[in-house]
Amino acid sequence: MARVTIRIDDALYERLQRRARKVGVSVAELLRPAIDQTADPRGGYVYTTQDEILSCVLQTLSILAASVRRRSPETLEQGMADARALLLEKGLLSPDEQP
User: Fold this and answer.
1) What residue stretches are annotated with the Ribbon-helix-helix protein CopG domain (predicted)?
2) Confidence at residue 92, expressed as pLDDT on a 0 to 100 scale
């Protein structure tokens, strides 16, 4: 089995140790699923510290989409198709999620 070494601050390591103890596993066992998810070739979403910004952007875009839908359903449909194509190209949408 390969070994990976990373450096993290002491406070983070202590939080990881507490969490691992709570669920009865080692820190390595706790982290393996997250590492596996990150390396998944299907490109699923991986949690980052940017999630708060992402949620604000999604809310803003939802409001914009609702406004465009009311004024021009065709424009919204084309915009959504373009967005799906970009997400697919960037690996953020799996091919089976395409309509």
Assistant:
1) 3-37
2) 80
pTM of the model: 0.44
Structural domain boundaries in the chain: 8-44, 46-88
Token pair of 23, please? 């669920």
First-to-last C-alpha distance (Å) of the chain = 40
Whole-number Å distance between alpha carbons of 60 and 79: 15
- Do 87 and 93 form a contact (C-beta atoms < 8 A)? yes
Which residues are CB-neighbours of 73 under 8 A, at least 6 positions away?
none
Q: Quick check: 7 pLDDT over 80?
A: yes
Residue of 2 and 38 predicted with greater confidence: 2
Q: What is the pLDDT of residue 94?
A: 76
Gap between the Cα atoms of 47 and 66, Å rounded: 27
Sign of the CA dihedral with 7 first, then 8, 14, and 18 last: negative
